[in-house]
Sequence to fold (124 residues):
Amino acid sequence: MTQAAEMTKIAIAALEDKKAEDISILDISQVSVLANYFLIASGNSKIQVQALIDSVQEKLGRAGYAPKNIEGYRTGNWVLMDYGDLIVHVFDRQNRLFYDLERIWCDGKKLDKESFLKQEGENA
Fold:
């Protein structure tokens, strides 16, 4: 399993632990040098968005991955976590609809979460 895939898998588990909604994985490796994956999720409130970010940071930290940058934590409406090959975006519902990253990055490949977790788990 690649490091980017491992980080993504850990981040998905962290988001699911805190009941993130509408988790999407975009493979942007063929269309951008920014990262290999965008992981996009939603929370219902500022407090939940911050809890989702805290969970991702804790679990990736335990696995030895530190974020290069985190932006938007204080406002809690769109938080971006940059892990190099993985960029995690956590939105409140209103901002997720407004910014619609899946549409903006439609040249990337949207991956099925369950298939991704199963496929990458088998390659470990």
In short: Residues 3-110 form a domain with the Beta Polymerase; domain 2 fold (CATH 3.30.460.10).
